[in-house]
Amino acid sequence: MKRIDTKYIVKAGAIAAIYFVVTILLGSVSYGPIQFRISESLVVLPMVEPAAIWGVFIGCLLANIGSPFGLLDILGGSLVTLLAAYLTSKTKTFYKGILPPIILNALIVSIWVSYFTKMPYYLVALYIALSEAIVTGVFGYVVITVYKRLKDKYSL
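Structure tokens predicted for Putative membrane protein (156 residues):
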């Protein structure tokens, strides 16, 4: 087993902090049946940064404390993000890497969001899939491109 060093912990912490702050700052669009959680763009980072798996999980866990859907979203949503980040880390291409967060959030998070908002499941799943596709596909591409450049330039 690979030893976790200080650099790994700092990276995970920084990613968690960014995820948390961005989610909270954009709170009104970060939760609900039509959510545009910009912080989810960080879920693509595990493709190039193993510490991002724990970083996005912890950031999501902390951000979901503010969720209107309570403990179910705090634990369930965070575990969905953890699984999506892990599966993304196993992919080889960007376009395959964005599929786990899109699919898992659309199919699983939509269960309780539709229940609490009393909206049809299929509609919530569609809204979440579309917003997740935009966030991970567009903003995620920017995040991963910038991170690769910074990693090369500063030996992150």
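The helical segments are 6-25, 27-30, 51-63, 70-89, 94-97, 99-117, 121-154.
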